[in-house]
Amino acid sequence: MVTAATSFSRSGVSDWLIQRFSAIILGAYTLFIVGFIVAHPGLDYTTWKSLFIHPLVRIFSLAALLALVAHAWIGLWAVITDYLTSRLLGAKAIVLRLLVLAIFAVVTFAYMAWAVQILWGLQ
């Protein structure tokens, strides 16, 4: 049983909606990037950089990044709560689950900050 300590008061419906919405954003972003690559067979650094200087592309990239983080968080939360259970680990399960989630949160935040710095640092 997942406790309130690790569910963060989310519901299954909200998780499902976030997963689906983030999957749509990620799919659209993938199609956009692949379409751009296909449309520019002689793609060079200058063309690639000029794409990401455009504010709408930066915003779309940021939305895709946030969608990826949300999608990954919910997916890994589900896996972690399915496998790090009290039945398998006893009383240590909640502490271990919180520790794994905290490590994942720190790593995800670091990658997110790094990606935003790269994305918005282009000049």
Describe the protein in words:
This protein has a single domain (about 5-120), classed as 3 helical TM bundles of succinate and fumarate reductases (Up-down Bundle), CATH 1.20.1300.10. The chain is elongated. Helix 2 crosses helix 4 and helix 4 (about 55-85) packs antiparallel against helix 6 (about 95-120). The protein has helices at about 5, 10-40, 45-55, 55-85, 85-90, 95-120. The longest helix has 29 residues, at about 55-85. The protein contains six helices and no strands. With about 120 residues, it is mainly α. About 85% of the residues lie in helices and about 0% in strands.
Outline:
This protein has 123 residues and is an all-alpha fold.
What is the total number of structural domains? 1
Strand share of the residues?
under 5%
- Please identify the top-level CATH class: Mainly Alpha
What's the story with the biggest beta sheet?
none
Topology pattern, helix = H, strand = E: HHHHHH
State the low-pLDDT regions, or none: none
Report the helical percentage. Answer: over 70%
Round the Cα radius of gyration to an integer and report it: 18 Å
Name given to the CATH architecture: Up-down Bundle
CATH homologous superfamily caption: Fumarate reductase/succinate dehydrogenase, transmembrane subunit
Oligomer: single chain
Distance between the termini: 50 Å
- Helix tally equals 6
Average pLDDT? 88
